Amino acid sequence: MPPGLGKMRKLVKSDGWDKCWVEGLVPWDLGGPTPVILHLLQTQTLPSGRALVPGCGSGYDVVALASPQRYVVGLDISDNALDKAKELSSSAPNSDHFTFLKADFFNWKPNEAFDLIFDYTFFCAIDPRLRPTWAKRMRLLLKPGGELITLIFPIGNHVGGPPYKVSAEEYEVVLRPLGFNLTYLEDNDLAVKGRKGKEKLGRWKLSIGQSLIYEVVLRPLGFDLTYLEDNDRAIERKKGKERLGRWKLSLSQSLM
């Protein structure tokens, strides 16, 4: 076990993530942008538009991703993490193209969905029982045709957490049924020291399936999808072919 990991786990369970930032027990913090994100930016293969980084911490990746073509939201529940992120980015030349928000990923309701979401050390930080809910939230927050970038870490067989052990298969189990197609999966050759061999890069595309056709026409008009599940009460001949979707018409500034 890496130094400080045991103490970090105790702090998370007793006092929450914010206390870890107070104590400086943040082994997930790389001290700079994630190398593979910088590589993807250089290859110009990432979607433009709106991007989200849940569990953004110090915000290095938020700042790296932000540009005139891409507005980025960094989300975290820790005041101290966000204070650090704002301090570190206060003089960034691209500061007009990103923001930091304190909110709980699992109940946050933005006014608009995203074209790109980047998840690193977030999936592995949550209780594994919440992973299906994590996937549903990703499904609600991402636009049809949008991309979810996942750095799958830590791959292994260790017991306990956080970070909890993960595998590519565990992502697939929760994402595929919701319309996510895996377009790329490889070992992350740009993983930092100590994470090589324990990390994969997975890229997922949210397909425009039958249930997503509604989103294409409704989201631009201010409708937010708040619930989407298979309809277990469908009549016999429609079972497996029917879903219940609930939409809320937002009172965004443009609609008032």
TrEMBL record:
Signal sequence region: none
Record GO biological process: methylation
Molecular function via GO: thiol S-methyltransferase activity
Database matches in CDD domains: AdoMet_MTases
Keywords: Methyltransferase, Phosphoprotein, S-adenosyl-L-methionine, Transferase
Classification via InterPro entries: SAM-dependent_MTases_sf, TPMT
Coiled-coil ranges from the UniProt annotation: none
Record PANTHER family: PTHR32183, THIOL METHYLTRANSFERASE 2-RELATED
Name of the molecule in the record: Methyltransferase domain-containing protein
Source organism per UniProt: Amborella trichopoda
